[in-house]
Each structure stands twice: as C-alpha cells, then as structure tokens.
Amino acid sequence: MLPGAGDLADAGLLGSPDQVASVRASTTGADRGHPQRALDLRVLDGVDLRLLPDRGLDVSAAWFGGLPLAWISPVGEVRPRPGLRGTEWNAAFGGGLLTTCGLQNVGAPSEGHGQHGTFSHLPAHDVRVDRLREAGQVLLSVSGVVDDVTALGGHLRCERTVTTTTGRGEVVVRDVVTNLGAREVAAPLLYHVNLGAPLWSPGARLRAPSAEVVPRDETAAAALPHWDVAPDPEPGGGERVFEHLPGPGAAGWSTVSVVNEALGVEVEIGWDAAVLPRLHQWVHPAPGVYVLGIEPANCSVLGRASDRAAGRLPMLGAGSSRASTLRLRVSRHASVTTP
Question: For residues 200 and 278, what is the distance between their CA atoms, to the nearest angstrom?
Fold first, then answer.
C-alpha cells in the first residue's frame, strides 16, 4: 500500500507537493486550428483528470493507475461552438468522462433550444486551483463559474467544483446552479458520463438496482434482455437508450457500477437522487464508437416541450439555487482470469 501523500509531506520526504499532486495548464487542439484551455490533474494513487475550462469545466480524459476510463469520440477535443442549432451538438461532442447537458434544454431540440443545450459550449471564468489536506491525503480541487446568459433574456449561473484525491480513486463534481434572472425558468440538467474500452468492453457488466428498465424505441427494446451486458461490436448497430426507474425508497444517494472482472476493476457512479431522480443509459455498439453512457438527470431526454407536456419540466425560481453532486469511485479487485 502506498503511503499517504500528506504523510509523505509531513515526514519531510517531498521536495515539492507537485511530486504527489500537480496541476498543469496547457492548450489543446491548436494543431487542428481549435485551441482551447486544458488543465491536467495528476495525483498519487488516484484518478488523473483532464479538464476543459472552455467547455464548461467538463472532464475529458481520465485514468486510474494508467487505465483509461473515459470514452473519447472520433470528434476528439475541439473548442466550443456557440449558437448550435438542432442536432449540431453532435458535431462537437468529444465524449470525455463528463459532458454536462443543460441548463435550458436536455435531449432532443425543443422550443427553440438545440440538442442538450449550451452548457458544454460555455467557458468557465474565475477558474481557481486549490490543493488541500485531508486525513493524510492531498485533494486537488478546481473551481469555476459558468454563465448561461443573454443580454435581454434569463441568467442561469453554475458554480462548479471538481475534486480528485490522492490515495483513493475518487472524483467528485459539485454544482450549484442559481437563477439570477427575474422570473422562474426551466432548468433541466443531465450528467453525461461516458465510459469506453478497455473498461467497457465485451464481458463487462452494468449493475443498477432498478425497479424497471424502459427502452426508448424498438432498437432499444430488442436489446432489453441484455441491457446490463457489454455487447459484442455490431457493424451498423444503432444507439440504444433506456430509462431506469427507481425502486421504493430510492430518494437518497443512488449508485450504479460497471464491473470488468477480466481487468479486476469496478467503477461506481453515484449521485443525489433527490435532486437527480431520473437515470438514463446510452449504449452504442458500432465499431469505432462503442460506448456506454450513464446519465443521472432531473429530466427526460425528449426535450423540454415533452417534459412540459408531461408536467415534469424542472423549474428554478428567481433567486433560487439548486445543488447537485456527482461522484465516481474506482476500485481494484482480484482478476478472475488467468493472464
């Protein structure tokens, strides 16, 4: 077992705290004509992260002990594209461990808002890095402010903090969304957590304590008997979307897990179900795509008009705030296969 990073510092064994917990600012995409800010977080015996301040301080790549966790789309890391309409969001969807959807629309284009809203195309400002001590470990915490605002319209502000810690495979994203406008507005939110190979590959399983799994369409219905198993790559295969309905008493902290026994790794995703009561699952089996999306949300993926008609559109009153937390934990287990 590795010693705690804080304990190493207390023992006078470190020349610099950067040896165990460092943040490096860089520019990504410049060689493709799409420069944007990036922050690389590295921690001893924890989860390394790449954050994109120009994309809402979302999380791009992530590694645990050298094992990649995130799915990266063929689009890759590209700079934000303001003013996206319809389904143009897909043209700039780079994947990554976390892509945030909202704050005015989630899912299908609706009521004049494009697919999945604008959050992941808004720059974070007042970005700050803190290095903290806790129980013999070191926490790297990056915070920033994302404003979804127009000159004559509403104003939603998200204050985001992303934390990764030495000595444990844990990442925590905490958001506080405040309506700074003068009237109540729709404020849907979805955390698009994207997992890829080798973590999500044939043989991996998804564990979710759902009372019922509801397919979105016929393609998903055909795959319903195997919703919890990573499929074999399927040339020409289409995406499959399911909604997981919670069981009784599931209003507290909810978790799902992806287990890859061959790798000896489990990734647990947790969230506050009182704030994010809905869970969507996205699977795309096509070669060259091959991804699992875990999507805690306060809304559907059908767009705000559909939620409004169903009486389930999340609203946020003038001057009101809403806090939400997403937590990812990675742990190693003994492999069940022989090398």
Answer: 22
**CATH number (domain holding residue 180):** 2.70.98.10
**Cα(154)–Cα(149) distance, integer angstroms:** 6
Residue 20 lies inside a defined structural domain of this protein: yes
Number of independent structural domains in the chain: 1
For residue 283, CA distances in Å to 72, 105, 126, 267 come to: 14, 21, 35, 17
- CA-based torsion, 206, 198, 282, 266: positive or negative: positive
Please name the helix (run of DSSP H) or strand (run of DSSP E) that holds residue 18, with its range, or none.
Answer: none
What are the CB-based long-range contacts (under 8 Å, 24+) for 150-154?
153/181, 154/104, 154/179, 154/181, 154/183, 154/185
Q: Quick check: is 248 in a domain?
A: yes
pLDDT for the residue 249: 61
The answer as to whether 152 is a domain residue is yes
pLDDT (tens digit, 9 = 90+) per residue, 299-328? Answer: 999 999 999 999 999 999 999 999 999 999
Taking a C-beta distance cutoff of 8 angstroms, is the pair 119, 314 a contact? no
**Helix, strand, or coil here: 10?**
helix
Strand partners, 146: 124, 158
pTM score, two decimals? 0.95
